[in-house]
Amino acid sequence: MENSTIAIVVPCFNEEEVLPQTNQQLRALLDGMMRDRLVGEGSYILYVDDGSRDRTWEIIAGYSEADALVRGLKLAGNVGHQNALMAGLDTARQDADVTVSIDADLQDDINAIPEMVKKYNEDCDIVYGVRRKRSTDTFFKRTTAQLFYRFMTSMGVKSVYNHADFRLMSRRAVDALCQYEERNLFLRGLVPLLGYKTDQVFYDRLERQAGESKYPLSKMLSFAIDGVTSFSVKPLRLIFDLGLIFLLISLGILVYVIVALCKGNGVQGWASLMLSIWFVGGCVLICLSIIAAYIGRIYTEGKHRPRYNIEKYVK
Fold first, then answer.
1. Domain match, 69 and 189 both
2. Helices H, strands E: what count in the chain?
3. Of the four listed, 73, 157, 210, 301, which is most buried by Cβ atoms within 10 Å?
4. What are the start-end ranges of the H helices in the chain?
C-alpha cells in the first residue's frame, strides 16, 4: 500500500483568518511526504466550504486555481461540521486511496499525519489521532470534555477517548461509512462500528492560530444529544427505572401517611403536596423531552432528505 494517494479533507466554516496559515502548513507537509515517497504524486488537500459567510470560499477557489495540489468543494448551504466532513470524505474516496480529516484551525498536530500513513501501510484501515492531554483547554472545556466522554461511555456509545475528528481512513473504510444513511451524523460513534483494523497516534493539541472556535457550549450540548440519541436507547430504559423509583417513593409516603393518621399525628398543609407535584411534574416533562428527542430523530430519518448539496467542486 505504499505510495498511495492521500486526500487531506478540511471542513471550513468562516475560516478566512486561519486559512492562509493552514494552507501553507498543509502544503509543506504534503510536499514533504511526496518527496519522501510516503504518499503518491496524486495526493491533494480538499477544503470543504460549509456555507461560510466570509471570504472562505473565495480564498479556497484562489488556492485551487493556483495550485494543482489544492481542491475546493463548496456546499450550497450550511449543513454543519459532521455533514460537511462527510461530503468531503464521500468526494475524496472517488480518487484517493486514503483520507485524513482535520479541522481548519490546525489545533490537531499535522506532524502526526506521516505516522498515521505509516500505520496505514502496516494494514490499518483506520488510525485515530488521540490527544495525550488537554493542558491547552480552559478548566471549563477540559472538565466538560471529560464529562462528555464518560457520559457517552455510560450510555453505551462506542467512542475513542480524547479523539475528535482527526483520523485516517482507507478507501474501503470510507466506502463502508458511506453506507450508513443517518441524517443526524455522529462520526465519532459511527467510525468505531466499522470493525476494520484500527490503531492510534498520540499528539499534543496546539493553540488555535487565528479566528474563533466554531463549537460554543450550545453546539457541544447539541452534539452530545445527537450522539446519545443516535447510538443508545439507554435513556429510555432509565425512564422506566425512574418510574419505579417514583412508585416506591409514593408507596413509602402512603405508609407514612397511614401510620401518622393512626397515631393522630396527621398534619394538614400544602407545602409537601405542592413540592411533590412540582417535582414529579418536572420529571415527567424531562422524560417526555427525552422521548420527544427520539421521535424527532425518527421523523428526520424518515424523510430521507439529502445530507448536503454541492454547489461547486474545483480542482
1. yes
2. 10, 8
3. 73
4. 19-35, 56-66, 81-92, 113-121, 139-154, 171-177, 187-190, 217-231, 234-262, 271-303
